[in-house]
Write a structure and sequence with these properties.
The protein has 254 residues and is mainly alpha-helical. Helix content is 69%, strand content 0%.
């Protein structure tokens, strides 16, 4: 569901697992690190077709996105590995629920719809908020000033300085970031694709705050999520780089 539905569905399901006593806090942290992902509709439809004007690029980004999240999942197998499963950590505030009957079906449907609407408003609210913040940072030239500080890092990675502002934007809010990166003119278009792969894996601070607002009630730490997303972004960029350089038909460089 985290892969199919996109952000923040994975976190919402993990949070529900923790609340319902299906898993412990440590197990929830392990799942949270790799089950919260960007969906195919956004990666293939919006980024691939809409921004890069190429369906193959969208499919490539989605494949490397999945490979990266699975890699993080295997690595987080050892997250607090030495700690034995403590059933006392399981939240027992949710008692056993009887099978669904026609009497309470309407109530369950209403609750599900309200939960979905609240999640949609939450996502939209964060996107609008961070779009305003990015506009303010652009107008005040703070973002441009901050991009100068990461130029040594981009230079070390052999990334032109023209990408610094877009990378910072993507670290704040994913949609604005990939839009800016994809629009940068460059004959070596693989750089744009690789950077977008990293941003899609990381998700941005906007999404991290969405996740925090969801998992806080379940008392799940945000730390493993942030570590996992940094790793996922890095692995996604690495896999994208390797595929673009080893499969000639995927190389769009002029």
């Amino acid at each position: 569901m985290g892969i199919i539905s996109g952000y923040p569905m994975g976190a919402k399901i993990v949070s529900n697992f923790k609340k319902q006593g299906i898993c412990t806090k440590v197990e929830a942290e392990r799942m949270l690190a790799f089950t919260n992902n960007s969906g195919p509709l956004f990666i293939i439809g919006t980024v691939g077709v809409g921004l890069f004007k190429d369906t193959t690029t969208g499919i490539l980004l989605f494949i490397t996105h999945i490979l990266a999240c699975l890699t993080v999942g295997f690595l987080f197998r050892w997250w607090k590995f030495s700690r034995k499963r403590n059933t006392n950590e399981i939240d027992d505030s949710f008692s056993y629920q009887a099978p669904i009957s026609l009497a309470n079906l309407g109530e369950i449907l209403a609750s599900s719809i309200m939960s979905a609407i609240n999640t949609i408003f939450l996502i939209g609210g964060f996107i609008v908020l961070f779009s305003v913040i990015i506009s303010i940072l652009n107008a005040s030239r703070i973002l441009e000033f901050a991009s100068d500080f990461i130029s040594p890092l981009t230079g070390f990675l052999n990334i032109p300085d023209s990408y610094s502002k877009g990378i910072l934007t993507g670290l704040l809010e994913l949609t604005n970031g990939v839009s800016n990166i994809s629009a940068i003119p460059n004959k070596n278009i693989s750089i744009n694709i690789i950077i977008c792969a990293f941003l899609l894996g990381f998700g941005g601070i906007s999404i991290a705050l969405q996740i925090l607002s969801i998992i806080s009630k379940a008392k799940i730490s945000i730390k493993p999520y942030l570590i996992g997303k940094l790793l996922q972004g890095s692995f996604a960029a690495l896999y994208t780089y390797l595929i673009l350089n080893n499969f000639a038909f995927l190389n769009l460089n002029l």
